[in-house]
Amino acid sequence: MTWLDYIPKNGSPRDRAGADFYYHRPYEPHYYPDGTGKGIRVPASDMTPEQIAEYDEGWEQAVEVGERKDWG
């Protein structure tokens, strides 16, 4: 594996979770299959358990890192 394997695909559940935490948005599983802001936004009600678990992992990783946007 390379470092690229650790970068989530844009719009993926893990990517959205990290962005939500960083920008002080609430925990709300979702993703964009075609990339962030492109095409449809898939809500938790239409996600598989695996996709929600991916969001959860991304959220927990973001919490662990602790970095958040400073609106200063």
Structural class estimated from helices and strands: mainly alpha
Low-confidence stretches: none
Q: In one word, what is the shape?
A: globular
Sketch the topology as an H/E string, one letter per element: HEEH
Instruction: Indicate the percent of residues in helices.
Output: 25-40%
Describe the structure.
The structure is a single chain. A two-stranded antiparallel ribbon has the order 1-2. The chain contains two helices and two strands; from the N terminus they run H-E-E-H. The mean pLDDT is 92. The chain has helices spanning 13-22, 49-65, and strands at 30-31, 42-43. The protein has one domain (9-65). The protein is mostly helical and 72 residues long.
Structural topology:
Elements: H1 13-22, E1 30-31, E2 42-43, H2 49-65
Antiparallel strand pairs: 1-2
Helix pairs in contact: 1-2
Features:
two-stranded antiparallel sheet; 72 residues; 38% helix; 2 strands; 2 helices; mainly alpha
Give the structure's gist in a few sentences.
By secondary structure, the protein is mainly alpha-helical. Helices cover 38% and strands 6% of the residues.
